UniProtKB/TrEMBL annotation:
This is Type VII secretion-associated serine protease mycosin. GO terms for cellular component: plasma membrane. It is a single-pass membrane protein. GO terms for biological process: proteolysis. Residues 408-419 have a biased composition (Polar residues). Keywords: Cell membrane, Hydrolase, Membrane, Protease, Serine protease, Transmembrane, Transmembrane helix. It comes from the Bacteria. Belongs to the peptidase S8 family. It holds the Pfam family Peptidase_S8. The chain crosses the membrane at residues 376-398. The keyword NADP does not apply. InterPro entries: Peptidase_S8/S53_dom, Peptidase_S8/S53_dom_sf, Peptidase_S8_Asp-AS, Peptidase_S8_His-AS, Peptidase_S8_Ser-AS, Peptidase_S8_subtilisin-like, Peptidase_S8_subtilisin-rel, T7SS_pept_S8A_mycosin. Its main location: membrane.
Length: 419
């Protein structure tokens, strides 16, 4: 199983709910068998397990709700209680069970497990060997199941199932029911040679509402194939407010089937060798279709790694905006391969946005008013001149007095010597 694709079958117009889209019949096909597997034979990737071990000491997704818009989610002992958010397919029905809790494809159940699988470390003492190291990215998160499409149905007439219109409807349903994160691993791929459908406007409106309601939207980047050649536009990964996630073959190689995105590269492992079974309480490695064993591989299964990471950040920073959560995730990835690391995304602070330069006009200060100083100097000068003049005059007068005194004495002596 690669990526379940939204099929464009006459999408309903703006404001039209999928169930009112027009006449048509959706018939269920037989659900495929699955391949059971022992989870201990395929332990979780070591690097991811180590990252989650450290991340879960800080956050586990508690009180964060993730909506999974997909093929439904089958209940499983390793999943939390699942809130039914709507069945927009209406094919596989069982009495007393909401259609969105019946996952014929297995696709949505695998996605849900990647996001919120509870750990099982075994029980008993000594250890009885029943546990494993598999755990979801945000194991304490809550889940909303919205069944938007299925590959195992037949359509006759205008059913309005699996369209861009039902995808927009699904986003609105998730928002109405209080989702904090929306994971969309079912996409619509429009080749570059095709005109973009008018039904894209309701989807864009739904994504706009999510952004302004504070909800982070994560979507698969899409898989290259016959109906999705390279260069195609993938919805909803096309939107700037959506985190588009590519798949990797291994720790350092982007999968060749990942549709290239115009956004910053963001990636996670695309192959899930062991996932939660949609048919019971065990684990499976794939589904058994007419073509043989189909493993769980594609960008569909890379996206929930990022959704779970966003749930961890949302718990840690409950008032962060979608843009701030996206910035934290994108700032933490390896720039060469876009690999997301939950612990690094949870703990790394994004670089502050550069402050734009602004022109500042500075005028030269007016020269200080020193007229008082000049007047004071002038007065002092005048005083000094007067004092100098007085000193000179007094000196001359005193000097003349000193010259007169000796002459008077001589005359007196002469007078005394007259016979």
């Amino acid at each position: 199983m690669i990526l379940t694709t939204v099929v464009l079958l006459g999408a309903p117009g703006p404001g039209t709910r999928a169930q009112d889209a027009g006449p048509g019949v959706v018939e269920p096909m037989d659900c495929p068998a699955v391949s059971p597997v022992d989870p201990t034979l395929h332990p979780m990737d070591g690097d991811l397990a180590d990252s989650l071990d450290r991340a879960h000491r800080i956050a586990t997704g508690h009180d964060v709700t993730v909506a999974v818009i997909d093929t439904g989610i089958s209940p499983h002992p390793r999943l939390p209680g699942i809130h039914p958010g709507g069945d927009l397919v209406g094919a596989h029905q069982q009495e007393g069970i909401p259609g969105e809790l019946i996952d014929c494809d297995g696709h949505g159940t695998i996605v849900a497990g990647i996001i919120a699988m509870r750990p099982d470390h075994g029980s008993g003492w000594p250890y009885d060997g029943t546990g494993d190291n598999h755990v979801g990215i945000a194991p304490a998160a809550n889940l909303i199941a919205i069944k938007q499409t299925s590959a195992f149905v037949r359509h006759s007439g205008d059913t309005g199932v699996g369209t861009l219109g039902t995808l927009a409807d699904s986003v609105h349903r998730a928002l109405d029911q209080g989702a904090h994160i929306i994971n969309i691993s079912v996409v619509s791929c429009i080749p570059a040679t095709h005109e973009h459908p008018g039904a894209i406007h309701p989807l864009d409106e739904a994504l706009w509402r999510a952004e302004h309601q504070g909800v982070v939207v994560v979507a698969a980047a899409g898989n290259v194939g016959q109906d999705c050649p390279e260069g195609s536009t993938v919805y909803p990964a096309h939107a700037e407010t959506v985190l588009a996630v590519s798949a990797r073959f291994d720790s350092h190689t982007i999968a060749s089937y990942s549709v290239a995105s115009d956004q910053q590269l963001l990636s996670a492992q695309g192959l899930i060798p062991t996932g939660l079974s949609p048919r019971g309480d065990g684990f499976v490695s794939g589904v058994l279709a007419q073509s043989g064993h189909n493993p769980f591989e594609g960008t569909s299964f890379a996206a929930p790694v990022v959704s779970g990471t966003a749930a961890l950040i949302r718990q840690r920073h409950p008032h962060a905006s979608p843009a701030e959560i996206r910035a934290r995730i994108l700032a933490s990835v390896d720039p060469a391969r876009g690999a997301v690391d939950p612990y690094r995304a949870l703990t790394m602070e994004p670089a502050p946005a550069p402050v734009p330069a602004r022109e500042v006009h500075i005028s030269a200060p007016a020269p200080p008013d020193d007229s008082a100083r000049r007047n004071a100097v002038a007065v002092l000068g005048m005083v000094a001149a007067v004092v100098t003049a007085i000193a000179v005059t007094t000196g001359r007068w005193w000097g003349s007095r000193q010259r007169l005194k000796p002459s008077h004495s001589m005359n007196s002596s002469a007078q005394g010597r007259v016979p």
